[in-house]
Write a structure and sequence with these properties.
The structure is a homodimer of 330-residue chains. Chain A has nine helices and twelve strands. The first copy, chain A, is of the alpha+beta class. Chain A folds into two domains: 3-140, 60s Ribosomal Protein L30, Chain: A (2-Layer Sandwich); 144-320, Alpha-Beta Complex (Phosphoribosyl-aminoimidazole Synthetase, Chain A, domain 2), CATH 3.90.650.10. Chain A has a seven-stranded mixed beta sheet, sandwiched between helices. A four-stranded mixed beta sheet of chain A has the order 2-5-3-4, covered by helices on one side. In chain A, helix 1 (3-16) packs parallel to helix 3 (96-111) and helix 4 (163-172) crosses helix 5. The mean pLDDT of chain A is 91. At the A-B interface, helix 1, strand 1, strand 2, helix 2 and strand 3 of A face helix 1, strand 1, strand 2, helix 2 and strand 3 of B. Chains A, B: InterPro entries: PurM-like_C_sf (IPR036676), PurM-like_N (IPR016188), PurM-like_N_sf (IPR036921), ThiL-like (IPR006283).
């Protein structure tokens, strides 16, 4: 059955199953934020054929990823989610099952963080389009910004990069990865289809702040690529950065899919890993990585203006990183 | 010049001109809401060819209308706007000028209420698509809901209905309205292209509440039609309604465009007038309409279950109103 057979009321009735009862029925949803918290708001639009396709992304993964991208933006600011709105443009011939699966995926990702869908809109469109706005809260003195890094701070990542891109390659090319086990393949594909927003890190950050209320943490997420994140933080903060390639965490299975140079390209420019890239004083960073499995300090900020990647076994080759290979929408 | 020539960075630079400086640059925007206020969140998606077309709506009007629809949803809950996010899907061959005009229209509508664009996303799409989320605040005890009307309350409208639909007819058919003055024609077309969200009414409501803190006001906006709004409020509140056709405010110029029966249809089902339909105790409604030029009490809620329209010079004919002619998206 297609959604044009269901009609607007039928479609809304289906979608309402995924929303808490108390928010449905008025022109807008009502939320009660915690006192003395700042609101953080982020929005994303995903278009069929551009951001997702049936070939690599089943509807349930489209739903998961679209929510994950927005929650990752909240995590990148240090904010906890309060709720999301979902605006959907749907082709009339879209199977009802696709829409149900889309909401299942969104709900699964949201349920991890007890976050409700608080509102939405559905309309007909020549192309399936999803627009999500996420709202979160954060204590004003604990907002993570791109622009507040200082020289000689540690640059850390919350986890490995390149996995999402490797997973995409595996999904696009069935012959790839013959030497990988099924579990390794699945794990990389899972990274691409069901990336985790790193909201799980926030409690560790809160502990740091509880012991040092004046601590400043700069950062952003790596959704547009690790290199892009480092360059953006450096530029916004007016600092340079030196990153050591051999400290970048990544799974060895990547080297069974592509030559080392390609793997480094995936790690730096692959994007969509949704990890956090944070800058903070070195001693605090050392404390923090102990509480976040898979995280690593990958370099330091400098008083220079360039973002430099040190490669080679003795970190004796320098490459200047730029944003230019980052994700461009037009 | 088309947006594909401008590239993502160029496009973002252009769009940022319309956003306050302090909200641009991080993964998400930060807002500081007033303490003890509830948040109200609403979202809408508009798709080219479905919700707007170049024939009846220049880009500046598309921008204005898309903002107006969202601000109207806030007004309908009694909430004042805090900010909006804008997600845009754009065809590569869209003229840059069209996008600029779109933002001009949004900014003009927003500036009336000192409301900023606090965030957004732009991506490529086979069809121009606009998704707006508006965030507002309201004192928790002053939220206007659909479900809180009581029997024997007055039903009032904040202004005339049918004008937007009449304006659309004039835009679609140049030969129509030969007996109308240019000013009358322009006024109706303006109603269609630049509808006003009725946020201007909120101060009058606050005055009522200041003198009677326990006052409950039920209501919603009439974006999907006046009949739809009355039926929705009645059903959500479990009351009936009796509306007198001769009390419905509308301009006489409508009768020069269409026979009386068609005019009544435009008034009841035309939609997109973005007025408020409010239910409150009769004495309070009498007070309120004195402060809102063009508003009128059009009927009363009842203990019946039906929404009845009384027509004829002596209001002696009864028609049962339903939602069924309301705007359907699929």
């Amino acid at each position: 059955m297609e959604i044009r057979d269901l009609g607007e009321q039928g479609l809304l009735a289906m979608v309402k199953r995924f929303c808490p009862l108390e928010v449905v029925g008025d022109d807008a949803a009502v939320l009660s934020p915690v006192a003395d918290q700042s609101l953080v708001v982020t929005t994303d639009m995903l278009v069929e054929g551009c951001h997702f396709s049936d070939r690599t992304t089943p509807a349930i993964a489209v739903g998961w990823r679209s929510v994950s991208a927005n929650l990752s933006d909240l995590a990148a600011m240090g904010a906890s989610p309060l709720g999301i709105t979902v605006a959907l443009g749907l082709r009339g011939e879209t199977p009802i099952n696709w829409v149900e699966q889309l909401y299942e995926g969104m709900a699964e990702c949201l349920d991890q963080f007890q976050t409700p869908i608080i509102g939405g809109d559905i309309c007909r469109s020549p192309i399936n389009t999803i627009s999500i706005t996420a709202i979160g809260t954060v204590a004003p003195q604990r907002i993570i910004k791109r622009s507040t890094a200082q020289p000689e701070w540690a640059i850390m990542v919350s986890g490995a990069h390149g996995h999402s891109r490797a997973g995409l390659e595996l999904l696009l090319n069935e012959n790839l990865g013959a030497s990988l086990s099924e579990t390794e393949k699945r794990s990389l594909q899972h990274h691409h289809q069901y990336p985790q927003p790193r909201l799980d890190i926030l409690p560790s950050l809160q502990k740091l702040w509880d012991s040092d209320p004046h601590l400043i943490i700069a950062g952003m997420d790596s959704s547009d690529g690790l290199a892009d994140a480092i360059v953006q933080i450096s530029q916004a903060s007016g600092v340079g950065a030196r990153i050591e390639a051999q400290k970048l965490p990544h799974s060895n299975s990547l080297f069974q899919l592509a030559p080392a140079e390609t793997v480094l390209d995936w790690v730096l420019y692959g994007g969509e890993d949704f990890e956090l890239v944070l800058c903070l004083p070195c001693d605090r960073a050392q404390q923090l990585i102990k509480h976040i499995p898979g995280s690593a300090i990958i370099g330091v900020t400098t008083t220079e203006t360039e973002t430099i990647l040190l490669t080679g076994t003795h970190s004796n080759s320098e490459i200047i990183l730029t944003q230019k290979q980052g994700f461009q929408h037009f």
